[in-house]
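To: structure desk
From: M.T.
Subject: fold request, one chain
Message: Could you run this one when you get a chance? Sequence is below, nothing fancy, just the single chain.
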Amino acid sequence: PRVLLIGDSISMGYTLDVREMLKGKANVHRIPTNGGPTTNGLKNIKAWLGDSKWDVIHFNWGLHDLKYIAEDPSKRADPKAPGSHLQVPLADYEKNLAELVKLMQATGAKLIWCNTTPVPAGSDGRVEGDEKKYNEAAARVMTAAGIPTDDLCTHANAKLKDVQLPANVHYSPSGYHYLAEKVASVIAENLSKK
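Reply: Done. Structure tokens follow.
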């Protein structure tokens, strides 16, 4: 079965481990770049899906949507600085996700939503805990569409001090391996349901 991973740098961090863990069970692919915010997803989703047939698509957007930016969208801004704003406000995020889900559902693949991992205190350009609001918005979209959730946020929170880098949304190599165990297990469960 062919599996496509869509996500940001967090998914980049766990891809190789997931591929190794599913060796002999699935052919694991990943989009060729950082998925960025949902606005980037909408621009690129058709190219990422291509003409290939996908059995499972495991996808996430969030950490870039809830990032604060100023004039230059490629640079993070202090959330308290004048002129800084969310890259994708919550209502737009929810609307964009619903649109992305429709486009992915059209492929006939089994979809698995992966919720957004924790934003710790001191994380540059982000506000601690903002992932909760974005995950709630995403949950409304996924519930309406009947899409299961890989709750990577709760999984990461269980060992956050051991697996996440200090004041950073990223993870240590062993932290990415820990995330990969959950991702691979959820994908494996859904392969048999296809």
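Reply (cont.): The radius of gyration is 16 Å. Let me know if you need anything else for the meeting.
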